[in-house]
Design brief:
The chain folds into 2 domains: 1-89, P-loop containing nucleotide triphosphate hydrolases (Rossmann fold); 94-162, no CATH class. The chain is 36% helix and 22% strand. The chain has 5 helices and 4 strands, in the order E-E-H-E-E-H-H-H-H. It has helices spanning 46-53, 76-85, 102-112, 117-130, 146-161; strands spanning 2-15, 18-31, 61-66, 69-70. Helix 3 crosses helix 4. The longest helix has 16 residues, at 146-161. It binds adenosine-5'-triphosphate and magnesium ion.
Length: 162
Amino acid sequence: MVVIEARNVTKSFSAGDVDVQAVCGISLSVNAGEFLGIVGPSGSGKSTLLSLIGGIDTPTSGQILLEGTDLAAISDDQRTLLRRRRIGFVFQAFNLLPTLSAIENVSLPLELDGVAERQARQRAAAALESVNLAHRAGHLPSMMSGGEELEQLEDELRHYRA
Ligand SMILES: Nc1ncnc2c1ncn2[C@@H]1O[C@H](COP(=O)(O)OP(=O)(O)OP(=O)(O)O)[C@@H](O)[C@H]1O
Ligand SMILES: [Mg+2]
């Protein structure tokens, strides 16, 4: 089953009088359970493409379909719900809320979505446990290093490959 599909996607930015073509005609599809790596030099458009697939930004042309839904064909509010409920995203600069602890960062989207605080915290605790970060639940993002997070991710990948 195809969960993510990009059809001839382009994205350009105009910065002053210079036009930057960040993504040029990308088509791809990702099946459920499939891992896809996108590699390329700095500035080649990887983060821009991820922002488009994640429904954070909209393409200049082409289409992005998430579980068959064309992200350009739905309202801002519907895209917000889709981002909150159907797609996860690790940003290049993490974008964690600096004044919230690890568990508060993880449970916030559930609480915004109407899940009771107690239940949201339980689910967040289980999510942290699943990436071996239960012991850091009360720590602020500034107390956790990017390297530690990468180690956790590599552990997870080994787990999935096993
Ligand atoms: N908001 C923006 N306004 C203008 N130009 C932008 C904007 N966002 C990205 N760009 C430009 O688009 C191009 C692609 O940027 P992008 O961040 O997607 O690259 P990247 O492949 O993720 O790079 P890196 O490996 O360094 O993270 C770059 O030339 C960048 O300067
Ligand atoms: Mg990037």
